[in-house]
Amino acid sequence: MSHASFWELMNFGPDGWGWSMLRGAGMTVMVALVGFMLGGVIGTFGAWAKIAGNRPVRVAADAYTTILRGIPDLLIIFLFYFGGSLALSAIYRAFGGDGFIDFPGFAAGAMAIGLTSGAQHTEVFRGAYYAIHSGELEAARAAGMTRMLMLRRIIIPLLLRHALPGLGNIWQVVLKESALVSVTGLIELARQAQIGAGSTRQPFYFFIAAAILFLAITFVSNRVFRFSEAHFSRGVRGAR
């Protein structure tokens, strides 16, 4: 198979790598999605801390975003993977076990991506909140809306409308960062391409296939975000 063509290598038969590459792409989407969602949760609390927190809370939130922006993403993944392995092994030995336990690569990658993207989510949500016109909130109060009703019917929809372009950019960054998770041994798309390239000694075909799959994921993702932006912007042009 060392002189096989691209289509022979990427077919979905018993000797092809098609299904393996698709499984790798699926793992890439999963780790990126979990990390993105975790980052969204962290970013929600981070934005709240910067907007409504007291001074110590705001200082802590500022320190978080500053530090995470200054540390390389690959280093964060290593810290979670090796630090998690050391912690699990220490707990195991504390209960009488003997040996070393590897921290799951998926968990390490998703947590690292979530922590790093959380800093970006924080700034996006914060900027989106301040982009909401004060007159819209005053009108809601004048209509007698409760705080929770205002949050559900006014603040969250408007915040998402302003945040979606930034969230789309974060997702693209997270998707590319997911390739770094391969250093933990997780077989995602980049790692699967490396395995295939090493087995067949035809790296060009496998990395081309990986690039095509990344582009396909990006294309679908862009369509989803554009649809979401159109959904949350309904009536805006008409109102103008």
Protein model, in words:
With 240 residues, the protein is an all-alpha fold. The protein has a domain at 29-186: MetI-like (MetI-like fold), CATH 1.10.3720. Helices cover 79% and strands 0% of the residues. It has ten helices and no strands. The longest helix has 35 residues, at 18-52. The radius of gyration is 22 Å and the shape is flat. The mean pLDDT is 89.
List the total number of helices.
10
Q: How would a crystallographer describe the biggest sheet?
A: none
Q: Could you tell me the strand content as a percent range? A: under 5%
Derived from helix and strand composition plus strand pairing, the structural class reads mainly alpha
**CA-atom Rg in angstroms:** 22 Å
CATH architecture of the domain at 29-186: Orthogonal Bundle
Question: What is the CA–CA distance across the termini?
Answer: 62 Å
- For this structure, what is the CATH homologous superfamily of the domain at 29-186? MetI-like
Q: Quick one: overall form?
A: flat
Quaternary structure of the protein: single chain
Query: What portion of residues is helical?
Result: over 70%
Briefly note the CATH topology name of the domain at 29-186: MetI-like fold
Mean pLDDT: 89
Number-wise, the strands total 0
GO molecular function: transmembrane transporter activity
Family: Belongs to the binding-protein-dependent transport system permease family. HisMQ subfamily.
Protein name: ABC transporter permease
Pfam family, one: BPD_transp_1
